[in-house]
Amino acid sequence: MNIRLAKPGDKIVIANWKTTYKGIIEDRYLQTISVVRRQKMWKEAIEEGYETKCLYVVERDRVIIGFATGGSERTNNYRIDDELFAIYILEEFQGQGIGIKLFEKVATFLSKKGYNSILVWVLKDNPSYKFYESFQPTLVGTEQIEIGGKSYEEVAYGWKDIRCLLHVIQMKRADN
């Protein structure tokens, strides 16, 4: 397994988005997700560079099986510097500690860029909230968002000190 910053030409998979939200977001919307549109978004993100944000990919046998991305917090509502935008791992590779490693990569990158705090948004009905809760966050806020014409509740978990978060991550990695 190899974790690295994404580079031009990487093919970021979207199957993991569809499997993550199956049963949470309506299937009709999930079927509209376009590989071409998502690939264009990732290409643009990679081309912008890594001054204030990052996009890590994890490969196994030269195939990308997941990714994580982070950067400046988008709302400016919570007195938190940066945000973990996403961690997605193909379903068959989940539960193997890959998410912890990706979270650590993003948090370390952002810490080195001078950010002090971090948050992540999770759909309330997404079972992955347990993953984030295992890192001892603070509940920062909730919002209603619209996806495919339907309203969903999203929960923000935050860590006011990214160094403390990195310590918790390292302890969890040592336990695995």
Automatic annotation (TrEMBL):
Residues 1-163 form the N-acetyltransferase domain. This is N-acetyltransferase domain-containing protein. Transmembrane segments: none annotated. CDD domains: NAT_SF.
